[in-house]
Automatic annotation (TrEMBL), chains A, B, C, D:
Residues 16-195 form the Class II aldolase/adducin N-terminal domain. One of its GO terms (molecular function) is L-ribulose-phosphate 4-epimerase activity. The keyword Metal-binding applies. It is an enzyme of class 5 (isomerase). This is L-ribulose-5-phosphate 4-epimerase. It catalyses: L-ribulose 5-phosphate = D-xylulose 5-phosphate. Signal peptide: none annotated. It holds the Pfam family Aldolase_II. Coiled coil: none annotated.
Amino acid sequence: MSLTDELLGTVAELRRTVADLHGELTRNELVAWTAGNVSARVPGRELMVIKPSGVSYDELSADTMVVTDLHGRLRDGDLAPSSDTAAHAYVYRHLPDVGGVVHTHSTYATAWAARGEPIPCVLTMIADEFGGAIPVGPFALIGDDSIGRGIVETLRASRSPAVLMRNHGPFTVGRTARDAVKAAVLVEDVARTVHKAFELGAPAPLPAEDIDRLYARYQNVYGQR
Amino acid sequence: MSLTDELLGTVAELRRTVADLHGELTRNELVAWTAGNVSARVPGRELMVIKPSGVSYDELSADTMVVTDLHGRLRDGDLAPSSDTAAHAYVYRHLPDVGGVVHTHSTYATAWAARGEPIPCVLTMIADEFGGAIPVGPFALIGDDSIGRGIVETLRASRSPAVLMRNHGPFTVGRTARDAVKAAVLVEDVARTVHKAFELGAPAPLPAEDIDRLYARYQNVYGQR
Amino acid sequence: MSLTDELLGTVAELRRTVADLHGELTRNELVAWTAGNVSARVPGRELMVIKPSGVSYDELSADTMVVTDLHGRLRDGDLAPSSDTAAHAYVYRHLPDVGGVVHTHSTYATAWAARGEPIPCVLTMIADEFGGAIPVGPFALIGDDSIGRGIVETLRASRSPAVLMRNHGPFTVGRTARDAVKAAVLVEDVARTVHKAFELGAPAPLPAEDIDRLYARYQNVYGQR
Amino acid sequence: MSLTDELLGTVAELRRTVADLHGELTRNELVAWTAGNVSARVPGRELMVIKPSGVSYDELSADTMVVTDLHGRLRDGDLAPSSDTAAHAYVYRHLPDVGGVVHTHSTYATAWAARGEPIPCVLTMIADEFGGAIPVGPFALIGDDSIGRGIVETLRASRSPAVLMRNHGPFTVGRTARDAVKAAVLVEDVARTVHKAFELGAPAPLPAEDIDRLYARYQNVYGQR
């Protein structure tokens, strides 16, 4: 496959968007060293744009991003793709509405993942954004489709755009890469707040009907139309 | 209602002030993504200036702020107002001395709110600024006056300019928007310090008469006259 | 008393030093809003330079600093001095080797102060810098010499340049204002580390003879001669 | 020994590298005041480049770095070397593959060190980077080879590039100074995450065979070839 001019324009724009969005990971202190990555699906194509492996966040630019197909094979770019590429690719193959994927090892979300405990829905913000408890996915080794499959199966059983992969860390998805980054920021924010709440007591989850009303309202009313 | 020239001058200044004060929310790490807002009453008018809904803090400017009446109806500006506008408006309608309102989901204040526990007055700073324990307001769903009413009833029963709305987060008020921001910064600061104190023990509250003396002194002596 | 030209030169330099050192308080996240202050003794004079009351850290400059005598009476400057001036002044009157004083409400140091617990000497850094456990001073109300007296009596019974004033926060001293700021930075650093250590266990204090050797070495060997 | 022109070129480059890498210590909040240092071995020489003692991080530059031999004696530079020079030098003398050493008192790693507890391998990131639990070294006083010997003996019994020196803090090593800094950043990151995980439960360590597979893969596949 060679990239047409039109496709090259779309890809160029996505390379910039994805490179810039990594700045939100550092600004929100979700990542240490190079341990986190953002990708975006190339709309209508079997392609995605993703971070190269092991490159510092201040060396990232549109040019250093790489393009792979949805089996993780390099299609454009000079560097090797993120070591998490297979997981991102699996998600795009199996969840057609997902346009962006983010993976971090952010502290509090990863602490819940290390214990294998979902984050209970004890805050209106969790009901708004995640529609209920934030679920835990299975422990899976890197190297084949295990991580991707664990993400997809867990997300399909939930309204949450975030999954806490056991002993590993959070993966988030969104309609766009920016939405997935938002979910990565907010899953760490609520993971931290709920952690603090449980350090000194045991807050009760919100009633299911209140969660449903908050979630429905937020998905339909919040932001600019 | 159309805005007169004089009123436009006042509103223009408040738009800038309110936009700038959101910078204190990010600088003090009180907000994640777009989850927090500042408003100011337009003095002598049934109007307020407030953040637009779902807009990033680095895109905020005097121009993007919106003006609503005290029932939350848009009067000036191109964007939809904050989804918390009804709560701000209710506070201005019922507490005539309040000139500014702030809402955040800051981590530690929200953790106390998730447990539904007031922050006990175990520090001289809490006596100075809040005049006693920082109270908890009821759980209330967004969509009508429930949140606003919960804020007002709780603040009326206390000297505190901050209320921890249960399972939700803090709201603060002040004579000006800047004063309300100061209360938002300090409620998180003392929520964090008292949280840390209780993690390793159980500090005793200050005696009521000491709280009264500290509060009286601070309200009358601190700062520049 | 009117200030001579020579004295004015010294004072002008100290105003700049003290103003700049407040930047270390914010950079090291020791203060929220305006709640912390640095002062310096004017060498050989019954004078000190201190922060004005209730002024933001980004508005501080050499010009806005104020000069008081060692009973807290304004001698030079346009603004009212810090509300903690009496405590600083008392320290200078009673501890002639002290050239700088710092007061903050830094989170972890204040949490130990809220419980009234000294920070035990479980780290080589504490032995180096503080020469043993960091002591707690009495609860004292602002308004007379109680706070200053509590600071001085506690410091005299210890090698530590820091004291945790009960239910209030840390005060630190040094040969210079910069040394006092260093102690304010390090007392928060070790307060936090020891807090974390105790959250998951109970580290044992270092043996007294090791503390003595570390303290002696550090006071004589560290840094540039 | 006088330095030849060629050696001076290598040393000049290492001075800059080592000075710059201290910026990663502050950016990643691993150090308070001047309490942390980076060194690099001069390849093929019995020399190392290290931070001067007690100098602020913003005053560090290529010029202020110092060169010592591998017994800590000053060979080039105007300032006294770090008070931890003997420990760095011992590591270079005994571990020939080590090209860089870092020492910090980073909060969470030091908290584990204060309790004398290794950080258990409950996260894939720990398996990847450290190949198992992060070990604790003995308590040792500064002043002779005790600290260096404790570091070397502990690292030889482990795959980890980090050791938690008891009641003191972490030391890390790497093929280069940059690798040692990476290990210093990541040991604090996982120390924090595992601390948070244990605050609310007791995560189980990964099975030894999974740790081996993750470690082998990461050492061979991650990053750019």
